[in-house]
Amino acid sequence: MVIVVSGPGGVGKGTIAQSLVDSMDNLWLSKSWTTRSIRVGESPDSYVFVTREEFESSIESGKFLEWAEFQGNLYGTPLPEAPDGMDILLEIDVQGATAVIEKAIPALLIFVDAPSVEDQARRLRGRGDPETEVEKRILKGERERERAKELGAHIIINDDLELTIQEIRTLIESHAKGHQK
Q: How far apart are CA 77 and CA 109, in angstroms?
């Protein structure tokens, strides 16, 4: 099973995805690639950080499920190679979720959002994003919310991290049971 967790920047996708993988034995997280620099305080294993040349070479080799350019940096999801018996968790943006659907990959789509645009902006600033990037991510988030609705994603508001993680875990388990029938 493929589970896609998407949402605008600053809503906690990375924290949620890592918690799900840590607490669910059958879940494997696909690491996205990026050409951007690591943020201050960011875990070095939150992405596979590569040069633009490495990324472009991988595009040419067909190694990505999807990729996009945002604010001059490349971001992409490699074709997942999960161990046998593991469900795949993709923590990607809505453009990536769209690519999964366009490739006819059956997936559970989950869109995580902040309680408000103000909360999203506060979280982005709190992680050290410069004001120009905060503004761009807020605008992108508005488009992503609309697209997530069009895709029929399950919308989850992250106003309490532990409750959000539990809600998503329950959704995944429920979806898995439905596919075992």
A: 16
* Cα–Cα dist 171/24, whole Å: 13
Q: How many CB atoms lie within 10 A of CB 156?
A: 20
CA end-to-end distance (rounded Å), the chain: 14
CA 153, chain centre distance (Å): 13
Mean pLDDT, each 10-residue run in order, the chain (181 residues): 93 93 94 90 87 96 90 90 91 88 91 95 91 93 95 96 96 83 48
As a 3-state breakdown, the chain gives helix, strand, coil percent values, each rounded to 5, of 45, 25, 35
**Structure-token match 């997936």, residue found:** 107
In whole angstroms, give the CA distance from residue 147 to residue 159: 21
User: Would you state the structure tokens that stand for residue 139, as one six-digit string?
Assistant: 């605008």
Domains observed in the chain: 2-30+85-180 (3.40.50.300)
- Number of Cβ atoms within 10 Å of the Cβ of 80: 16
Q: Which residues sit opposite 5 in a β-bridge?
A: 91, 110
pTM: 0.84
